[in-house]
Amino acid sequence: MNALKYKHYTSVLNLxxxxxxxxxxxxxxxxxxxxxxxxxxxxxxxxxxxxxIIERLMPESxxxxxxxxxxxxxVWDDIKFCCxxxxxxxxxxxxxxxxxxxxxxxxxxxWENFIAYYEQYGSEACWAEYFDENIDFLLNDIDNPVIxxxxxxxxxFADITEESFRKYISSVKLEPYGESLTKLGKMKIKVMxxxxxxxxxxxxxDEMDDTASEYRVLYAERNKDAFVASLxxxxxxxxxxxxxxxxxxFASQEKKQILSKLDVTILGKETAKIIKELNxxxxxxxxxxxxxxxxxxxxxxxxxNQLDAYKNEELxxxxxxxxxxxxxxxxxxxxxxxxxxxDYNKKLFDKLxxxxxxxxxxxxxxxxxxxxxxHMGKEHVITGYVKQFKV
Length: 391
Prior knowledge:
By secondary structure, the protein is mainly alpha-helical. The protein is built from 22 helices and 3 strands.
């Protein structure tokens, strides 16, 4: 009799007394409401009893059916047995039932069940959520022979989290992606790039401009050689050029090729500030344009990094546009100069020696009177000679 407290309808069916079964089933809605649902302890109905309840309540009492499922904690081993006996006329109710099993963890987690749902209803939201929630368990059985290429492909497009998508594409062997990027969305495009699973081609580069333009630089970096080889055939935006010039992925010669894609007539201040930091010689047309755009404080770095691009006879005009202390270097007669020591000045004079613009640059500590403390101090300076210019 204890079984009646916990699984009343199961007990009625197991008793096998047909008059009682007929009576219960004649007043089935009232029985479900007043016994199965009303008795708090009645939450352990067996699977065959629940299947019988579902088939009798569907579709007229669908809401009542879900109340029963909410209360009873049965887990189906095989989803195909849920609503197996319902007619085609209640197919929509059957789908709701299967959705419930996936959404409420009332289904044993197997690829067989997962695939059975897909074959019946496709890639629904609850199907994707089920994969999200059970991904580790399912991926541990990724070699299961029931898994088809169709399922593997469908999961690429399923609405799952970034973490799950990354786990998935890192765990399965997929063919190189060849469909439209619009089917992926931004998150999946980014992950596939980061996992080196999105092959580089010009078609994807162009399409990415509309679907995920913020990841084109990442796409270029992860496919460096193919990207550089395609430069003549693709378009680059000025903000992309700026990012690529600052990237640590590309070598100097490659950055020169990237910079050559920039129309110098639209070179702006942001690009000019990036150019001043480039430590390799670039085309003079970009250097000159950047010089004219930059404020004085930014021109020093540009001059140092691009010094080799200038002829010696051009340097006096550049020194004339810097602080007055650098005007010591304008005259091309042999004369002595003196500058306060700084790392910048040391690097500049080392380069000027290499260019044969000056003959020497020596560090010295010289006596200097401190006007505030009224005693002599030491000043660290660099002195040398500008070389006589010979026509």
